[in-house]
Specification:
Blueprint: H1 2-7, H2 23-31, H3 33-38, H4 50-71, H5 80-90, H6 101-112, E1 117-124, E2 129-135, E3 141-142, E4 145-147, H7 154-166, E5 179-184, E6 187-197, E7 211-218, H8 246-254, E8 271-281, E9 284-290, H9 302-306, H10 317-337
Parallel strand pairs: 1-6
Antiparallel strand pairs: 1-4, 2-3, 2-7, 5-6, 7-8, 8-9
Subcellular location: Cytoplasm
Family: Belongs to the Nudix hydrolase family. DCP2 subfamily.
Cofactor: Mn(2+)
Length: about 350
């Protein structure tokens, strides 16, 4: 019954409490195949609890935000709770539970924090740097990771989540016996250690609006500042999702020599490999992406921070001479058209 009703939500969905239907939203969420993948094609047992149903609603919400809102500026961006409230208030099979929606949503949030999380700690060839990702809205960094699916193997979940968040397939490098596991309350977090990844590997998330930046960060700069194990590192990075794994990671590295010896010419600062920049034109969101192989402009090499000596200073004469020639030619052209007046 619930399955049939959920698949027919298009018949009872209203926007913002207004007594009207929004055809674009209906077509995008409740008719096209991507939404059917979230609801119609799931096993019957996934519809026997509100926790599982709200997971499906969450997937639909992501699809709405990432596709419908982005393509149609007239649609309003909704929080997950707002989106869930609309469904409960406008779907006959869920209406009887509207009075309990706050408790249902609270239980769902608590349930999410009990779902196991899998991911990977990706190390470069020298074991000096690890790959970190920054969330779309937050400012904290973490290892690529995500929640485990129903009946999903730990290592397969880690491979999937890393691929989604970085675009990199670790399946051939992952050893199921090399991992660090921690318990955070009732949530189990397991991160597999994946070493030997080349510096010039290309990274880019495969999901929308989930990751805002991917970067190599030096491990020696991730040590917490002032003995604060859950706050910031010496570089100012927020590390509360990274710090709990650092001691175990250092222990693992001490017993596993890197395939490539550390080099002195490595940048002392982190290197941003992929970054999404948000701008807006009207109501349309535009994402500009850059994937440099070297450090981006806002990540300076070590000597930019330490200061260069005058002995090593050199003018970049090529661009300077080109700019001067261009300026002189422009001045000559202006003088031919309108000669300067001489002072009396």
């Amino acid at each position: 019954m619930i399955l049939e009703e959920l698949s027919n939500m298009k018949q009872c969905f209203r926007i913002g409490g207004e007594q009207k239907y929004h055809s674009r939203l209906i077509n995008d969420i409740f008719v096209v195949k991507p939404y059917h993948r979230f609801v119609v094609n799931v096993p019957e047992e996934d519809l026997q609890s509100f926790e599982r149903i709200l997971f499906l609603v969450e997937y639909a919400h992501w699809f709405y935000e990432d596709n419908s809102v982005e393509k149609n500026p007239s649609l309003k961006s909704l929080t997950l709770k707002e989106f869930t409230s609309l469904l409960f208030n406008n779907c006959d099979v869920l209406k009887p539970y509207v009075a309990h929606l706050d408790d249902i949503f609270k239980d769902f949030t608590s349930y999410k924090f009990r779902v196991p999380v899998m991911g990977a700690i990706i190390l470069d060839e020298s074991n000096e740097r690890c790959l970190l990702v920054k969330g779309w809205k937050g400012t904290s960094w973490s290892f690529p990771r995500g929640k485990k699916g129903k009946d999903e193997d730990d290592h397969k979940c880690a491979i999937r989540e890393v691929k989604e968040e970085t675009g990199f397939d670790v399946s051939k490098l992952l050893n199921k016996d090399d991992y660090i596991e921690k318990m955070f309350g009732e949530q189990r977090v397991r991160l597999y250690i994946v070493a030997g990844v080349k510096d010039d590997t290309s990274f880019a998330p495969q999901t929308k609006k989930e990751i805002s930046e991917i970067a190599w960060q030096r491990l020696d700069e991730l040590q917490p500042a002032n003995h604060d194990v859950i706050s910031r590192g010496t570089t100012g990075l927020k590390l509360y999702m990274v710090a709990p794994f650092l001691a175990s990671l250092k222990s693992w590295i001490s017993m596993h020599p890197p395939p490539v010896a550390p080099r002195s010419d490595k940048p002392l600062k982190g290197i941003s490999l992929w970054k999404a920049k948000n701008s807006s034109t009207g109501n349309t969101s535009i994402i500009a992406v850059s994937k440099p192989s070297k450090a981006v402009a806002d990540v300076r090499p070590a000597d930019a921070f330490l200061g260069r000596s005058f002995r090593n200073f050199r003018f970049d004469t090529g661009p300077i001479m080109q700019a001067l020639e261009s300026a002189f030619s422009t001045t000559k052209m202006v003088n031919k058209i309108a000669p300067c007046k001489q002072d009396p």
